[in-house]
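Chapter review: from sequence to fold.
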Amino acid sequence: MLILDIGCGCGLLTLILSEKWNVIGINVNKDRLNIARKIVKIDFKEKFDLILALDILEHLKYPNKSLKKIHNHLKSNGLLIVSIPNKSSFWEVLNLFLKLEEHKHYWKPNEFKILLQKYGFELIDFYPRPMFGESLGFLPFYKNFLLVDILLGKMTPAIATGWVFAFRKIS
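The token string follows.
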């Protein structure tokens, strides 16, 4: 399996995935990319079985162009995993107020699904990112708490910090 990790940061996830699969990580941040280059080689001659775009599309000036490129670099029936923030979550409201991160775009889950359908993807599944679970991983009861946190996010989407989507390329 060949995987592309777009916005790989310093390559931690890329490194973990590369223990089992062939992974290419890319990033626009030169410092982080230099770290990632030590882990993987960049080669775009082949199409990918899986593309990861985790917390990246909301930062791009032209996400539609990127979605088209992602589609072109994905094999037929390939998978795309994307995560996006929830603008109405407590953390994003705080972010907007304090200007900690620059997010150029926000989508509601249904809007995002429709956008990806326009680019030849079908939704397989999506779930809310937990509001607290990511920051409480050190707790012994973390797994139970995470499950409750995800269920709360499904029942009350406004408390989710964002969403993770799985799409399949259909055309």
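Two observations follow directly from the output. The mean pLDDT is 77. DSSP finds six helices and six strands in the chain.
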